[in-house]
Amino acid sequence: MSITQFLAVMQARWKLALYVFLFVVLATAVASLVLPKRYTASTAIVLDVKSVDPVAGGYVPGLMSTTYMATQADIITSDRVARRVVAMLKLTENAEIREQWLQDTGGRGEFDAWLANLLQNNLEVLPSKSSNVIKINFSGVDAKFAALLANAFVQAYTDTTLDLRVEPARQYSGFFDERAKTYREELEKAQSRLSAYQREKGLLATDERLDIENARLAELSSQLVAMQALSAESSSRQAQVRNSADELRDVMTDPIVTGLRAEAGRQQAQLQQLSARLGDAHPQVIELKASIAELRSRIAIETRRVSGSVGVNNSINIGREAQVRAALDQQRIKLFQLKAQRDDALILLKDVETAQKAYDAVLGRLNLTKLDSQNTLTNVGLLSSATEPPFASSPKLFLNLGVAVVLGALLAVAAVLVREFFDRRVRTIEDIAEQLQLPVLCVMPGPAKRPRFGRQPDTARISMQQRVLGLPAATRTA
């Protein structure tokens, strides 16, 4: 349909369009005047998304999420918050509201749920896209009641956010309390095993005792080295005794042997003098020879005595070396056992330390969750409270009339087009060409109308309105 055809249809059916337009506008005006006035109370809250946890410290990570504001808006419009508002204002005790519930539902379902749903239908939550402010609107037929409910929703939302934070903390507190008891029992068992092992093995300070035993082992090792040196020396002297006892240093340095040898030497010199002067048969010479023989006998006895003491010393040194060696071996075995005991004690001590760390960690979390479960602080701040609105928010007469004008015009055009679709008529030259599928050769001028003020029709204008369709431009006639 061309613009010419559309205008021709609207011109032919202008009355229908006018009726539809007037009906829509008048119906809107009447409805706006008849409908009860509703008042909208508004309040605003601000959320601290950088809030620091007062218990654990540090920023709360969930507050930095981009979906946090949308989540809070969903919480405000949730059934839990609406039910809390109902409980706060004691709306279930209102007889008029209960009567309305009985009329609407016939007493089926829960009264609280129906009332909460009714409140949710009149609630509007508008989270800001560029800030942390959430605007809460509540509409009602009573301005004072609307303001009361708007403020009640803010309070209910604040309490609900606190409950949502405290309830998990309480659950975690019970869980950590049970775990703390379990870890404490494990710690006590580990400590008991360590104490029993220390009492059984006589371990008080394992590291100190180990140091003492290591020092004793080092001392025995030094003693063994010294005894080995003495044994080697005494064995060498014992061998020398077997070869030549007279040349033994102990014999040569012995004072008795030295004195006897000196006396024997002196008497031997005297014997030589007397023998040369008196002869071998002289009594003095014989007596002196007997004295020298006695001295030599005593020297031999003393030599045997000294060489015998060397053998005894050698035997003693060998025995002492064996004793030190045996003590060293026993000390090594004892040290090995002590190290094994220390390792076992360290394992038990490690179990105690591990149980202690686990118990301390759980106890720390338990204390934090207990404090968090008793927390009464939230990150919700009241920016502006709702007050009784002085003017009604709906119905808005002029706004509704403006919408009705636009909507009435659209409905009028739609009604005309629908009417024309079911009752099609020829109104323009294009309609003839479309219906007959034939070209229009010419258009005859209509009868001239006499002007009201005696003016003659303009023949030139009439001739200009004549058209010839479907023919070349040269064959068109006026």
The class by helix and strand makeup works out as: mainly alpha
Please bin the fraction of helical residues: 55-70%
- Overall mean confidence score, pLDDT: 76
Per the principal axes of the C-alpha atoms, what is the gross shape? rod-shaped
Question: How many DSSP E strands?
Answer: 4
Domain Tyrosine-protein kinase G-rich: 344-420
GO cellular component, one term: plasma membrane
Membrane topology: Multi-pass membrane protein
InterPro entries: Bact_polysacc_biosynth/exp, Chain_len_reg_EpsF, GNVR, LPS_length_determ_N
Tag the structure with descriptive keywords.
4-stranded antiparallel sheet, single chain, disordered C terminus, 478 residues, 4 strands, mainly alpha
Explain what this protein looks like in three dimensions.
The structure is a single chain. The chain is mainly alpha-helical. Among the domains are: 1-35 and 410-438, no CATH class; 441-478, no CATH class. The protein is 69% helix and 6% strand. It contains 14 helices and 4 strands. The chain has a 4-stranded antiparallel β-sheet. Strand 2 (123-127) and strand 3 (133-140) form a beta hairpin. Helix 2 runs antiparallel to helix 12 (397-422), helix 4 packs across helix 7 (143-201) and helix 10 (255-278) runs antiparallel to helix 11 (283-373). The protein is rod-shaped, with a radius of gyration of 64 Å. Mean pLDDT is 76; it is low at 453-478. Pfam families: GNVR (PF13807), Wzz (PF02706). It is a multi-pass membrane protein.
